[in-house]
């Protein structure tokens, strides 16, 4: 099995990865709403724990669709997917520590961390769209961290909009792959 075959399996099983950004858009929007209506600390908890629900909720969406909705046991990409997933909660602990001292920097720092995590998906899925998504999140996070910190209080919503904007492109790119299941 070649890397191209392995990547096609990942695209087929996860429908191009569209459901993760779709659920992420919701989680980020909810967390930013909590930031403004409840407290920054509650928003940090919402993004941290809500982020842990992204993959399981994505799996629920995939199970409602025809075809296989997960990789077979022992698949060559399973370890890479897991390793990539575990970087986010660890990174978010750093963003939470920063946000404890300066709450407006929590979402921008989180965008940097999550954006960097998406670069691995270029190899995992064989889809360059993830480089664009990761890059957009990293740039947005850097702008909020270093150039326009005032957008920090709404950068969760902006990040959510970025996730949502990429969802149809990821879904569309994978249609040919998962239609062949």
UniProtKB/TrEMBL annotation:
Keywords: Membrane, Transmembrane, Transmembrane helix. It holds the Pfam family DUF7010. The keyword Manganese does not apply. InterPro entries: DUF7010. The keyword Coiled coil does not apply. It comes from the Bacteria. The chain crosses the membrane at residues 21-38, 44-62, 74-98, 104-125, 130-148, 154-172. This is Uncharacterized protein. It comes from Cryobacterium breve. The lineage of its organism: Bacteria, Bacillati, Actinomycetota, Actinomycetes, Micrococcales.
